[in-house]
What we know:
The complex is a heterotrimer.
Chain A: E1 5-16, E2 22-34, E3 39-43, H1 50-58, E4 65-72, E5 75-78, H2 84-93, E6 95-98, H3 110-120, H4 125-138, H5 155-167, E7 173-177, H6 185-200, E8 204-208, H7 212-218, E9 221-224
Parallel strand pairs in A: 3-8, 3-9, 6-7, 7-8
Antiparallel strand pairs in A: 1-2, 1-4, 4-5
Helix pairs in contact in A: 3-4, 3-5
Chain B: H1 2-7, E1 14-23, E2 26-36, E3 41-45, H2 52-59, E4 67-73, E5 79-81, H3 87-96, E6 98-101, H4 105-108, H5 115-125, H6 131-144, H7 161-173, E7 179-183, H8 191-208, E8 211-216, H9 219-225, E9 228-233, E10 236-242, H10 243-248, H11 253-260
Parallel strand pairs in B: 3-8, 3-9, 6-7, 7-8
Antiparallel strand pairs in B: 1-2, 1-4, 4-5, 9-10
Helix pairs in contact in B: 5-6, 5-7, 6-7, 7-8
Chain C: H1 13-28, E1 34-35, H2 49-58, E2 64-69, H3 76-88, E3 92-93, E4 102-106, E5 119-123, H4 137-145, H5 150-163, E6 174-176, E7 180-182, H6 192-195, E8 201-206, E9 211-215, E10 221-223, E11 250-254, E12 261-265, H7 268-276
Parallel strand pairs in C: 2-3, 2-4, 4-5, 5-8
Antiparallel strand pairs in C: 1-9, 6-7, 6-10, 8-9, 11-12
Helix pairs in contact in C: 1-2
Amino acid sequence: MTAMIELANAEKTFTMHLQGGVELPVVRGVSFHADPGECVVLSGPSGAGKSSILKMIFGNYRCDSGRIDIRHHGKVIDLATAEPRQVLSIRRSTIGYVSQFLRAVPRVATIDVVAEPLIANGVPREEARERAGKLLRRLNIPERLWTLPPSTFSGGEQQRVNIARGFISDLPILLLDEPTASLDAANRAVVVELIAEKKTKGVAMVAIVHDDEIRHLIADRIVDVTSFAAAA
Amino acid sequence: MSELASLDNDQPLLVADGLAKNYGRLAACRDVSFALYPGEVLAIVGESGSGKSTLLQLLSAQLAPSAGRVSYRMRDGVLRDLAELGEAERRFLFRTDWGFVHQDPAQGLRMGVSAGANVGERLMAVGWNHYGRIRDTASTWLERVEIDVGRIDDAPKTYSGGMRQRLQIARNLVTEPRLVFMDEPTGGLDVSVQARLLDLMRNLVSELGLAAIVVTHDLAVARLLSHRVMVMKGGRVIETGLTDQVLDDPREPYTQLLVSSILPP
Amino acid sequence: MNAPTYNFAYLDEQTKRMIRRAILKAIAIPGYQVPFASREMPMPYGWGTGGVQVTAAILGPEDVLKVIDQGSDDTTNAISIRKFFGKTAGVATTTSTTDATVIQTRHRIPEASLHAGQVLVYQVPIPEPLRFLEPRETETRRMHALAEYGLMHVKLYEDIARFGHIATAYAYPVKVNARYVMDPSPTPKFDNPKMDNCAALQLFGAGREKRIYAIPPYTTVVSLDFEDHPFTRYRFNAPCALCGADNSYLDEIVTDDKGGRMFVCSDTDFCEQRQAAGHHGTESAAPHKEKAHV
Lengths: 232, 265, 294
């Protein structure tokens, strides 16, 4: 396969044991792929399972059946059956995830939060910080905030820190969950630019975007999730 | 980086195989098997009485299993059954290649002896015989765990709870162990003190490429520190997997109950 | 009077055999503390019950006994023990270090070097050198068994951290025969080098703690230290006021309530021998007289 991501009949059901074992089907028969340099946008109404699919590709949600093939270090690994160690390795060097909310560690300075993925991959601390600073500047985070932990920031600022952290590394796959949700027009434009740059570097992306305008700007292909909806 | 190199290492550091411990008819721990790799942090979660502390004692060779065994890859690369190590070897391992962070720092520290000597003891135990070098190394470690070096000659009985715990960590890490056992390391500390300690431990673990087995009932600690988690109930491991996977997509009824019992932040 | 009601040297023969077995084991494992069934002695704990039992077990009718307390032959404790064995064993007693075959001591090693065939018996209050840092006996025993002696250096580290040098002045820990760390009883560290490669047999008895240990003749005894804080002897920087010796361990004697003091040899036999040989210090050995107040 040349695709970076290939899902085939992936399926996910929640069993709510605390609610008397209610089965909550989420998605079924999910099949699509994403090639290098391509941004696939998932569309569909709220609750259709877009975020769940993204989480399955990241290995955050388990996949009950089907395959989620990821090209990792030139080999194809099925995330649905991968060992935890493999998933960790994939996350470190193949898949990046930009969530809606920043799950930051308390007390760590913003600049270090952003630089961390690079440092974890062996980039010297100084260089990592320099690149983090560049990205933060582009995303209009004032330099005086860099040494503060992001937990003290506004929602939009936190989101931008999160984007910087997600975009800083050179991972071949990026998953974007509403990256522009709470941003103003100027910063939305920056994110669109960043996505375009990633495409030229051959990064495969799967995104969820509600804003139609942004969707048209970034999407190479749109996958309608409604057909995968498993809810009765 | 060390973490990168060690996480891609395919040889397990510690292997538990069918571990069980019975106290009379009570099975405190049954049929636990897993492999821990260099640089990997494993959290063992569960309520009091779930068998997690017993398991920690089995893993760290402080308790002999009723069945099964624990093997550890020694620094020479050979995987050895811990039960076959002589006491001297086992204790040497404990002082050098392993660390053990107790919930109660008074158990892991010499409360009446200065902080410097607390940190230096392991060095002296492996034959360091130069006061100046021992003291310099102790100072460096106090700095790393964010203790004012001016307090090096004070005994931990004059320290706050958070400082004691950080000192305990320094005392354990000074010999650059490859595996650290932690038993509720943040238990009994204020929330703000906990956050600082967790942050510190997280950094040290990744900087040093340490493998760690952390017993905790606090899922937030597991989330922040560990790569993988094992959920225990009634002496059994009922669910295991990537930490965020188990916490965000719990399968077992008991795990769902644990996760749903966390107060929202 | 030789009291016929007492067995030779007070203890019954079974007890002596038990103690001798402990002594033999102690000699076989230099520095190792051998437990023994310490008996009640007709003296309180702390007055040398351990030393007295060891002496009683090794004493023969031909032995010549010397007893010193802090180097002195004429303190209450020394005189009592000397009299005790004079009465219960009928052995000859002496104050001369050279003439004695058995010397029981509290807190000193004589200045005159000991010769082959002599036995030095130490009274020991607390035999365990690790005790003050590790209160559990089970643990200290294991530490000895596994030669885990890092803790001993912790004690020395604490000294340097607090005082800038190793301030331990007595009961200074030693390593015997490159194996066991041992408490040399509360002798001043000035005496530590005398234990090394000593021609005499050294036996240690702790009555209350029920332990016997030993240093066989010509055994290596090394005082613990750090490379950058090596072991040093300590003595007051003065000659003996009575005999003028400048290489002996000195006692400080306060002579009035105005800060007046003098330093004299702690080893009374050594001091008297020197004076008999014509050495003199700044003071005469005559009983001290009150000086007239000005």
